[in-house]
Design brief:
alpha+beta, 7% strand, globular
Length: 114
């Protein structure tokens, strides 16, 4: 896997499960980090047991909150395996100076949306 690229999350498509909900987001905590998640919003952690290590636990909590929010606003109409998770930009952007935000270039955001 490219270290500068984050994959969309929904491996269930390969098992014939079609997503019903699209979650597009970003992790605002990454403004002060150069971490690239393996999957958008660390979504793969949602399906794992809760880790004991600090940074892994934070990733699990973030995934749980992200997917949990979708479950809540859909009134649990869909299960987590029906959610397709992506970022508008799954590639690494220039590192943001402290306290600043790097905006996603429009061409990359359009590509991510497609």
């Amino acid at each position: 896997m490219n270290d500068n690229y984050c994959k969309d999350w929904n491996p269930f498509i390969e098992k014939g499960v079609n997503p019903k909900v699209l979650l597009i987001g970003h992790d605002p905590r990454l403004q002060s980090s150069d971490t690239i998640a393996n999957y958008a919003l660390f979504s793969d952690y949602y399906f794992d047991d809760k880790p004991k290590k600090g940074s892994e636990k934070k990733k699990f909590d973030f995934a749980t909150k992200s997917i949990g929010q979708v479950l809540e606003i859909t009134n649990n109409k869909y299960k987590a395996d029906k959610i397709y998770v992506t970022n508008l930009c799954n590639e690494s952007l220039p590192y943001a100076p402290k306290g600043k935000t790097v905006l996603i270039p429009e061409s990359i955001a359009k590509n991510g949306f497609e």
